[in-house]
Amino acid sequence: MQAGSLRLRSAAQWWLAALVLAAILFVPLPDTFPALLQHSVAGLVFFVTGLLTVFFSRSPFNTFKAVLVEFSVALPQRLPRLWQTYFLVRRRALLAAMLPAAMAFAGRLLGLEQTPVLLLVLTSLLLLWLYRTPRQLW
User: Fold this and answer.
1) Is 107 inside any structural domain?
2) Is residue 124 part of a domain?
3) Is residue 81 part of a domain?
């Protein structure tokens, strides 16, 4: 695989994640949804549950690190297959990193206040930052 096509594929994964986060934060929702979580203990429980989804990204992150280590010892003829594995593992990891943002979206639908929604989205952004491609691979 050429470096240009690898960068394009990597950028496509990032733009998809950015679009999902933007949709969660900025898409206006109709006011017909019930405000079940606003000003209540249920909102706090929902927020803590959203934060606990961070732990679902632990296993994909360990797999992601293992693939990065494989790049340092890989033979040149094995690199194309390793890049395919890398993008597959990273896509799964990015999906796991988006779980707090998905909980933020569900919270928005149920009337969760904007501050916990923003914190859950920032948590997803931090997790997404962990899955950047190191410069040494390019």
Assistant:
1) yes
2) yes
3) yes
For Cα atoms 80, 82, 88, give the angle at the middle one, nearest 5 degrees: 110
Number of domains making up the chain: 1
Does the residue 106 lie in any domain? yes
Listing DSSP states for 27-57 in one string gives S---TTS--SSTTSHHHHHHHHHHHHGGGGG
Calculate the dihedral angle through the C-alpha atoms of 36, 39, 42, 47, rounding to the nearest 10 degrees: 110
Average pLDDT, the chain: 82
CA distance 43 to 116: 9
Chain position carrying tokens 């707090």: 100
From residue 86, alpha-carbon distances to 64, 82, 95, 120, 132 in Å are 7, 6, 14, 26, 11
**Burial of 71: CB neighbours in 10 Å, binned 0-12, 13-18, 19+:** middle
**Of residues 110, 121, 119, 93, the one with CA closest to residue 22:** 121
Residues in the chain: 138
pLDDT tens column, 91-100: 899 889 989 9
